[in-house]
What does this fold into?
Amino acid sequence: MKYNQNLFLIVFFAISFFLFGWLSHSAYTPIHKITEPSILDTIKKEKELKVVMLNAPSTYYIGSDGLQGFEYDLLKDYAKYLGVELNVTAVNTISEAIELSERLDFHIISAALSKTPSRVEKFNFGPSYFEVQQQVVCNRGLLKNKLFPRDVESLAGLKIKVGEGTSYSDTVRSLIKDGFDVDVTYTTAYSTEELLEQVSKNIIDCTIADSNIYALNLRYYPEMEMAFTISERQQLAWVLADDSKELEADMYTWLNQYSQRGKMAELKDHYYSNVHYFNYYDYKMLYKRIESRLPKYKKFFVNAGLKYGIQWKLLAAIAYQESHWNPNAKSFTGVRGMMMLTNATAKLLGIKNRVDPEQSIVGGTRHIKQMIKFVPQEVQGENRLKFALAAYNIGMGHVHDARKLAKRLGYNQNIWSDLKQVLPLLSKKKYYKTLKYGYARGEEPVKYVESIYDYRDILENHPKDIK
It folds into this structure.
């Protein structure tokens, strides 16, 4: 009996110690459990968003106002949202971006990368931010020789070059595999933009580029032309570092809010709106006049720009829009000179000779400066300059009318991307009869502003040194 009691006590204490140890361990483990910080946590802690970014017009470059580019501005806004600094490592080709990202500690690759099936298998893609199609782009000279391709079959015999490691090389290899005759060279030495330049200079016959890249570069390389579309619509997206679930989710949330606030539309408008106004012969003449006319008047633009705090290339772009840099220009309404001043405006500005190029440029610059001051304070940033340019063309009264109408119709009256949707309505009786200043040809200031920005971009990116 005593033996059984002792055995019971031993078993009881053994089970008690086991339960106590198990419960203690269960309670202890969660308290001291070590969790690795997420990439998003690390970004916030280190106050730095590290991005490998393609140096190209569609992504990131140094412009007149410093660092800019569609993808750069987008990621800069995201970094601002996170409260961190954007740290950019620039590369020149997509293959270089991918190679560098494998060796460096990075958070995002931003290189206008489309989400192709082969890439989705290899990379961790984040949210999509743009939709494009691949386009075959060829030299315009092929039109004269009746060799300009209109489909894949007519590519036979043409000299084609595309970037290795791009979605374009995947497309061409797929076509060759399907039996199409395509004479193609793959290269890692040139960016897509450089290949477009080679097409324009007739070094190669054709290349392939995404629709947004072609549109942005058309004004710089006017001797190229889109032949046909060679792919379905594709999404551009950022590549994120591995194990970036929290970062990816945060970017999706932010991008959705960014779009809902109209910021995405405003950014796209800033970079892509003027591509709709391309005129081949106009641009051909512009490039000729940059070399033949602009050097005579450059010093006047530079001096006026320094005196009144306006970029000289913007002033030159305005003058080109007004007079094609012709100091003796005259319209049927009587406006005259390089900056096409009315007689009344010239008198107010103290300009004695409207056809004197220096006086005209000074007068026009002062007039623009005044227009900027008259723009309502609620209009901020670059929107102020665009509103002022519209007023230079159509009058500040009509700009005020357009703002009132924009508010009435539910648009944001303080941003250009919305105002330019409303300005054309000033020519419709339904709207202008309710406004103080009445009828106006509202399409004109829209084209006017977009053309000026287009000309300025060409001056900034001109291959010859006109700085």
